[in-house]
Amino acid sequence: MFTSAWWWASALVVVDLAIRVLAIIFVPRNRRPTSGMAWLLAIFLIPYFGVIAFLLIGSPKLPRKRREVQEEINTFMRAVSAEERLEDTHGNNPAWFNSLVRMNAVYGGLPLLAGNSGTLLGDYEQTIAAMADAVDSATGYVHVQFYILGVDATTAGFFDALERAIARGVTVNVMLDHWASRGKRDYAATKARLDAMGANWTLMLPLQPLKGKFQRPDLRNHRKILVIDGTVGYMGSLNMISRDYNVKKNIRRGLKWKELVVELRGPGVSTLDAVFISDWYSETGEVILQGVRRAELVSGGESLSRLGSALVDHRADAGTMLIQVVPSGPGFERENNLRLFLGLIHAAQQRIVITSPYFVPDESLLYAISSAVARGVPVDLFVSEIGDQALVHHAQRSYYEQLLRAGVRIFLYPAPYILHAKHFTIDDEVAMIGSSNMDMRSFSLNMEVSMLVRDAGFVARLRAVEDEYREVSRMLTLEEWMRQPLRSTVLDNLARLTSALQ
Q1: Which of the 8 DSSP states describes residue 240?
Q2: What is the rounded distance in angstroms from the CA atom of residue 450 to the CA atom of residue 452?
Q3: What is the pLDDT of the chain when averaged over all its residues?
Q4: Residue 154 DSSP code
Q5: CA angle in degrees (0–180, nearest 5) for 491-492-494
Q6: Span 332-346, average pLDDT
Q7: What SS3 class is residue 453?
Q8: Separation CA 246–CA 408 (nearest Å)
Q9: For the chain, N or C: smaller number of CB within 10 Å?
Q10: Closest CA to 89 of 425, 368, 452
Q11: What is the C-alpha separation between 244 and 252, in angstroms, rounded?
């Protein structure tokens, strides 16, 4: 006679087998092979924990309702792109560049615009001071969007400028990522300060299941945008918070973040504003009409597409830069930032310089870089010597041997700095700068914003920044790397496996 223990054991075997069979059917579907294999490995080795993790974070998609909103936003973006003036922007470009611009417009919806100027800001405190000064010049509106926004001694001047703007009748709209900001020391004080000054503010991708707001917990809005009156905009890698992020372990280690931001003037500012307006609509259901007050905001039923042609007003030329703003993230199905990065690397003929704090490439990016070196294009990669996120840092290190053997020169920016800037240059006239890391999280899970630039002068200024990095960095050699202890190799390889769990 069978005992109850036997029945329980049999049931567990059947359940375990069913989990494995169902995993093989459903997990790899519409997923990268590396990601599918990583998830199957997790489910097969630790079935119950693996299944729970997959149900929580296995889907990189936004909730259905949010995807419907995003599709409306994408339609709006395409309406904006319809204003593109090809004779002004495409005439003198190489064919490969125009083809990438077209791809960006199809996937991200925004046009290439001429007549822009850009100033690079690399000093942390001075960058925040420049932003505060720009806010003090505002006469109509200020749009503030940061992955992490926190009031502290470093950012106090910026918050003071926002308060002064509101006091003189300027509309101030603010967005901050919920999960990224809530874990910081001054989160409650930041919300209280925004309320006290009278700012209109909302959380991005809030995790509030009791309010019906829930999605995969690690989907984040990683964008950093500041727009004043549609005439000046800021975008790049800097979060509006103290240079050590007010995190105890960072303070204990003496860590300091090194950033790069571009101050943009010209018609391209309006497309940067379009990204903010679309995110605001996605979170609140409200359409911001330029130059109007909060009470006059249109809600829900107003079609975003009607605002497209009004948004890009082609102000007078401010400079020589051709720029295209490229939004990306889980609301865009085709990983448009990764496709752009790949296209640029494959097109390079003279030189590639990449700066990324979190460099965890997929196979396509790894092949593109190694292929560039093989066809005679030098590739330099700037990364931090130390990491602030152990798992990501070890995953990044797991690619060093392969990169070094391919001929990539890796430069380690010295401690205690975290080189958090995100940019790269292609040959002498093309560059990318923005919020996007070169890792699978930024390609699939984070909402990012990048800017494609064609302008020899801007690239020269960015190359000067890269030269500054090179002067203080140490070049890693294959011989040095191969002397690392076995325990580091094990940790690196384990982290590499987890990086594919998307």
Answers
A1: B
A2: 7
A3: 86
A4: T
A5: 65
A6: 91
A7: strand
A8: 35
A9: N
A10: 452
A11: 10
